[in-house]
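Researcher: Structure for this, please.
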Amino acid sequence: MAQAQKKMASFAWQGKDKNGNSCKGKIKAASPSEVKTQLRKQGIVPKRINRELSIPLFDKKARSIKPVDIAFFSRQMATMMKSGVPLVQALEITSDGVEKDQLKEMIMAIRNDVNGGLDLSAALAKHPLHFDDLYCTLVHAGEQSGSLEQMLDRIATYKEKVEALKAKIKKAMTYPAAVVAVGIVVAALLLIKVVPQFEVTFSAFGADLPAFTRFVINLSEYAQKWWFIGLGIVVAIIYAFNRAKRTSQKFRDSVDRFVLKIPIIGGILHNAAIARFSRTLETTFAAGVPLVDALESSAGASGNVVYREAILQIRNSVSTGQSLKDAIIVTGLFPNMASQMIAIGEEAGSLEQMLSKVADYYEGLVDDAVDNMSALIEPLIISVLGVLVGGLVIAMYLPIFQLGNVVG
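Model: Predicted structure, token format:
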């Protein structure tokens, strides 16, 4: 019982493996002696063990592992293994080249598992939060076919393209929100800080104020008195929205369906879903994964429930003998050009190459659409801010203009 209550700590260690190669890593244990015991069970002779200090909350090395980090890891591994570096050594070099402690610790754990006899796919599967079934399936296919180097290169390219596409979509979704947020913040600052100064001046006039000015002053008084309630409502809405997205699949599905109907942004998301479907299907099919299984993986990677359900419908149709082209057309979600290009690839026996062209084309459409939207929104931001700021300024100067007319 006392043993179970010991406080675990993080230890950094250095040693030599069963082949005499130097290795290092991190491990959680109750004491240095327990670290030595765990390492010896793994065939590692420890040379140095140091207790680690706690990492500050906002230290950049302590940040969580992100998908872009996995893309970087994939590219590093692909590059080194194509250069002839052995797998275990490639993992060690990759670990030494990363800054995030969590990522470094995970890569060393994978390295230790591989050095202990596990296949790379099995070692990766121990970290499902960062290496999903699709990733592990592709690595396993590369191991089985003896082409792990080429498969890692294909995975790295796939991850880089997917992350680049995600970044484009995030930019498309963030920009309109930024316009609204900037407008609200500027208007709030003017109402709470600037308008009250004019109100003090107007009170000395002893004359009736224009209706527009009176409206802005009333709005300012309301903002000064209740701004914290408005801020609380905004924070509560954001919190409730994020919590619902995390905990409710039904809510996430509803959001997915709604965003596809938003003008301009919906079109970008449609094209992005088609691009991700094509890219994932191309990668898995080229790896030797059967088409039905590849379609199931593509459904999970589509990023939207509407397309996920449609792709699962395609999978069911293909599994019963229907052609891929016909199954795609039935869904009504894919443009005619995409279905025709896939049909040509299917008939010519070059489905992999055609899917790559489809993915490239729709990724280009997303790229162009986001750039065009950015170019349109920049003047929109100026216009919105001009109307807000200009309207408030006019409201404040109207009494002064009227006073000048009376005096004249």
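Researcher: Any notable elements?
Model: Residues 1-6, 53-62 have pLDDT under 50 and may be disordered. The CA atoms of residues 182 and 385 lie 8 Å apart.
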